[in-house]
Amino acid sequence: MGRLTRSIRLGMKSLLLHKLRSGLTVLGIVFGVGAVIAMMALSEGKSRAAQEAIKELGATNIILRSVKPAQDTLSSTTRGPSILTYGLKYADYERILETVPNLRKALPIREIRKEIRRGPYMLEGRVVGTTADYLEFNSLKMARGRFLTENDSKNRDNVAVLAHETAQVLFPFENPIGQSVRLGGDYYTVVGVTRERASTAGIGGSLAAQDYNRDVYIPLETARIRFGDKVIERRSGAFQAEEYQLSQITLQLGSMEEVMPTSEVVKGAYLPYHSAKKDVEMTIPYDLLLAAQREAFQGKLLLGCIAAISLLVGGIGIMNIMLATVTERTREIGIRRALGAKRRDITQQFLIETVVLSGVGGLLGVALGVLMPVFIQVWLPDQKAYVTTESVLLAFAISVIVGLLSGLYPAVRAAAMDPIEALRHE
C-alpha cells in the first residue's frame, strides 16, 4: 500500500510539473467523452419521441386506413365527373366484427374536410364521424360538457363535440355548450369541448401527423346520412369526385400477444376485397414499436462508435505524451531501478499517470456531455435530448480503458529499460 501511495504521489507530481502539456492531453478525452454522451442523448431523444408516438396509437391496436390508389383516375370528362371509388366500406367493418372473435373494441372513423362556421367565425377543420369509443382510443379528455354517446349515433342526432382550438375560434367569448355550429348545409348543437392535446407525429406511409385541436366530432350515423359517401370538389374548372365510406378502422385487442396472430385473420377479412386496388393499408403499432426499439439500439451503437473515435484520438494523445515522458525521465528511471525499484513499480507509476489523465478527462467530459444537450435544447427547442445513466457510465468507462491501453506500452517500455544504460542517458 505504501508503494502504491508513493507511486500516485510521484505520478501527480510529474503531471503537475507540465501543467500545459497535461491539460492539452486531457482535452482530447474531455471532448471525446462529451461527444459520446451528447450524441447518445440526441439519439435517445429521437428514439423516445418515435416510441411515444407509436405508443399513442396503442400497442394492442391494429389500424386499417383507406388510401387513395396509386393510379389516380380523377380526370374530368366533358359531361360530368368521374368518380374514384376506394377505401374501407361498412361491409368490411361488419365482416371484421364477424370474423375476428377476440376483438375487445372496434372503432370506425369517417373523416371529411369542411368549413366549420358559426356566425362571422369560420375555420377549415376536420369533421370526424365516429362513435363514443373515440375518446378512449385517442386519449382525449373533456374540458366541458360530454362526448358522443351510443344514443347520439343510434338516433342520428345533429350533435357535435368541438376540439380545443375549434371552440376558441368559433366561440372566443362565449360558452359553446348548447350553441349551434354549421357543417355544410346543416346545424349541429354543441354538447362538449375537448381539452387541448398535443399533435401526433406521422407514423408509416399510411398514417399522417394528426392535429386533434381543430376537429369537430359528430355521430358516425349522422355523418353517413348528412354527407353521404361521395366527396365532390371543383378545382381549376374541373370536377373531382371521390367515393369512400370509412377513413379508418381501429381494432383493439386484449393483449399484445394477440396482435400478430390476429393481424393475419384481419388480413383475410379485408384483403381479398382490396388487393386489386391496394386501397387499404394495415398498420400494427406493436410491430412498429419493436422496429423502433431495434433502430434506436442500432442508432445508439452507430453514434457511440462514431463518437468513440474522438476518444481513440485522445488515447493516441495520451500514448504520445507518455512516450515523450519516458524519454525525458530515462535517467530518473535508471536511478530508481538502481535504488531497488522493481519493474512493476515503474510500470505502476506510469499507468497511474495515464489513469489520472484519462480519469480527470473523463469526469470533465461527463460534465460537458451533460451540459451540451441543455444548450442544444435552448438553441433547438424542438430537438429533445435525454442523458441516460448508461451513456454516462459507458463513456467514462471507455475513457479510463482507453487511458489504460494507451499508457500500457509506454509503461512496459519504461520498465524494460536496462538500469545501467538508463543511468548513462543524458
From TrEMBL:
It is a multi-pass membrane protein. Residues 22-231 form the MacB-like periplasmic core domain. GO terms for cellular component: plasma membrane. It comes from the Bacteria. InterPro entries: ABC3_permease_C, MacB_PCD, Macrolide_Exporter_MacB. Its main location: membrane. It is found in: Cell membrane. One of its GO terms (molecular function) is transmembrane transporter activity. The chain crosses the membrane at residues 20-42, 301-327, 350-380, 392-412. Residues 305-419 form the ABC3 transporter permease C-terminal domain. Pfam families: FtsX (PF02687), MacB_PCD (PF12704). Keywords: Cell membrane, Membrane, Transmembrane, Transmembrane helix. Signal peptide: none annotated. Belongs to the ABC-4 integral membrane protein family. This is ABC transporter related protein. It comes from Isosphaera pallida (strain ATCC 43644 / DSM 9630 / IS1B).
